[in-house]
């Protein structure tokens, strides 16, 4: 309704109406970019086009010019780069200071960051300094054309409802977005854009943390969010030994093992394998779910997979609602012949 729309538009004080542009924070750790940053450039492009504003990337690092140019190849029209040894490694203080300075100078309307450990820490600190709102862990972003509000949707109340949150009276509007939820855009190295180098004069005396040493992870990390093939087991797998069958199929397919929370809680498989709301969000090419019922908290973490194959002995199981292919049957009868067949390939 028009009166409501006009009223809502008026709610934004005139000084905040000058905020324009979508910014995506390009997260790097040791000059390796977190893929969620590229996913956000893809999503940011849609929002920027919708609102007819510019899409920019923000790169903080050292020796990071290549990253800035890569951001252009993923769709950024401009990249603001702070290339300084002080921001080589992530530390909350200098990163916050730098980002806040850039925001105060250029006044972006929207800032998106990945809901990673780093992104969550930085977003909270920046939003606090800017005294603006922040929605964490979004899974859907949409634009309301009339009011220019970003509709930030995220699971709430244990995943039982989806809450849409608006930042009505402050700018910029800030959101962190879960990795692998948004589609990865195609890279195009022929794209052109502008890299704008910014300088911030940091005072190391005011920075209370120092990176002394970077210790590489020794145990083989489980990169569920990067896997193209996931074979996941749930309570239906029965016990720890049952998971050997899941592992065997994953091995034969060159995939990674996933699990429902029920299987993790039962102690059959470590928590790093958990897929879902409180686990990892995945988007593989193939997701095989064996003995998983399809509770909403599991589905939010895997329903965007390209192809879903569900194996369950209960034809009413909710997992069949999101499955591309459903096999009704006992997983202990279905999986062994599948493993044998794939071994032949
Ligand atoms: P069940 O729901 O018990 O399903 C087992 C399925 O196996 C059944 O459908 C059954 O028909 C089938 N089955 C049994 N035997 C066989 C057989 N021999 N062959 C074939 N099929 C068989 N869950 C997650 O997975 N990830 C999360 O991140 C997560 N976060 C949560 C957060 C909160 C706040 C809450 C409240 C819950 C969360 N849960 C999460 C738990 C979720 O609600 C479910 O309890 C859980 O996903 C159920 O796991 P499941 O499907 O393995 O078990």
UniProtKB/TrEMBL annotation:
BP GO annotations: fatty acid beta-oxidation using acyl-CoA dehydrogenase
Task: Write out the GO MF terms.
Answer: electron transfer activity; flavin adenine dinucleotide binding; iron-sulfur cluster binding; metal ion binding
The residue ranges flagged as biased composition, category Basic and acidic residues, are 1-12
Note whether Metal-binding occurs among the keywords: yes
The protein's UniProt keywords, in alphabetical order, are: Electron transport, FAD, Flavoprotein, Iron, Iron-sulfur, Metal-binding, Transport
Highest taxon above the source species: Bacteria
Annotated region Disordered: the residues are 1-13
The family classification in the record reads: Belongs to the ETF alpha-subunit/FixB family.
What is the name attached to this protein's record? Answer: Electron transfer flavoprotein alpha subunit apoprotein
